[in-house]
Amino acid sequence: MLLKKEAFGKDFIWGVSTAAYQIEGAHDFDGKGPSIWDIFVKKKNKIFQSHHGDIACDFYNRYTQDLYLMHRLNIRHFRFSLSWSRILPNGIGEVNQSGIDFYNRLIDLSLELGITPWITLYHWDLPLALDKKGGWLNRDIKDWFTEYVAVCVKHFGDRVKHWMVLNEPTVFSAAGYFFGVHAPGKKGLDYFLAAAHHAALAQAAGAGVIKALQPDSTVGTTFSCSHIEPYTDREKDILAAKKADVLLNRLLLEPLLGMGYPTREIKVLKRIEQYMKANDENDLKFNMDFIGVQNYTREIIKHSLFVPYLRAKIVNAKDRKVEMTAMNWEVYPESMYHILKKFNSYPNMPPLIITENGAAFPDKVEDNVVHDTKRSKYLQATIGQVLRAKQEGIPVKGYFVWTFLDNFEWAEGYQPRFGLVHVDFQTQQRIVKSSGQWYANFLE
To answer: How far is CA 261 from CA 172, 231, 252, in A?
Structure first.
């Protein structure tokens, strides 16, 4: 099928996504305070080859050339996150004017070039000063976060009209507080449940602050999600798949929609109630203008006696002998269609925007050219699945590629490359890949 932008309608939003810690660098420039990631990357054996984001893509110093490049590639919507500790070095209290100035320059140049800014308020880089007070484990984070949100809306809201509150709250609470593989590196079920509940409260409260200060803005939040299938049609595998679905797709989405936490399938999740106070269930709820869908693959789930709490495990793509990306994720574009259908089946679901989708493949630079045909094929196939959902009446309003530039991919360091633009991290040279050229042509 030859994809045409026109098939999606003239109001469909096409863009690219990035995140502050993954591209900005300038980790201690101009009054910026440290974040949990600035510290976590220095810990032994946490990050591939001890990579770190101190410089990353040096976007802090090179944003001008990057925005001009974006403009040249016909990209007119740019999702980026703000570094909380660049704006409030201690997480609360005194505002760092240099941080405000940087984001003002970034927003102003975007608008000058006809690029609409979409701001993510929290993309995992909690100020270290707040982590020392317990971070997401401390219920006060709801107030710290709303203070930060208010500062951002007051400084940028005259020009920025599109906001995303949190990036993938289930992932940062699980990876950072349950498995310990991401910052701040804590491990334990109760840590996870506390962090998840406080993130869910902050998500609704943050959205409320934006709407109170700027009623005409478009506000959403983003969720990681995977299409889930059982390994066999045995009852045990079907039950295991249902449990995985609760954790990977439903846990923080349903309370936002006013349905409470989905604790029926996984009894141990009822322990989240120990962190709840009167009226919390109501305070978890918010009528978002859109929900951001971040989907990359599907997961095949089987019963496992040895996995505590869940009795379920993922059957790796490698073991299933299927085509994989550099992240060892199955290449399965249909996952996007199934997830859009699933999300839309909730009775009170607002419109959907795909706020992240993309693929990491090993890239080769030859004669200053990067032919990444696998990525181009993946993007085209997935966008085709978005169109399929749209043609079936699912209210999907936009699609953002993850990501614009090759960047720091958290625990995986700089090894997996997701970008439409290749970055040489030694020289900071940018090369538009053939996938970037395809996207530019598609958007023309």
So the answer is: 18, 26, 7
Which residues, in sequence order, are CB contacts of 203 under 8 Å at separation 6+?
165, 166, 169, 221, 252, 256, 286
Q: Give me the residue label for tokens 């009852």.
A: 235
Going along 180-282, which residue ranges are E strands? Answer: 218-230
Full-model pTM: 0.98
Query: Could you tell me which residues are beta bridge partners of residue 253?
Result: none
Q: Spot the catalytic one: 299, 330, 356, 409.
A: 356
Beta-carbon contacts of 366 under 8 Å, excluding residues fewer than 6 positions away, are none
- Indicate if 356 belongs to the active site: yes
Burial of 93 (0-12, 13-18, 19+ CB in 10 A): exposed
Cα torsion through 129, 133, 136, 139, rounded to 10: -130
* DSSP H stretches of helix in 46-94: 59-72, 84-87
Please give the angle made by the CA atoms of 255, 197 and 19, to the nearest 5 degrees.
95
Per-residue pLDDT of 36-91, as tens digits, reads: 999 999 999 999 999 999 999 999 999 999 999 999 999 999 999 999 999 999 99
Q: Cis bond leading into 184, ω under 30°?
A: yes
Tokens encoding 264: 């029926």
Catalytic choice (168, 229, 299, 409): 168
Residue 1 predicted with pLDDT over 80: no
Per residue in 82-99, pLDDT (tens digit) is 999 999 999 999 999 999
| H or E, element range at 402 | strand 396-402
Structure tokens at 432: 């538009």
- Chain centroid to CA 195: 17
Residue 128: its H or E element: helix 128-131
Name the DSSP class of 34: P
Size (the chain), residues = 444
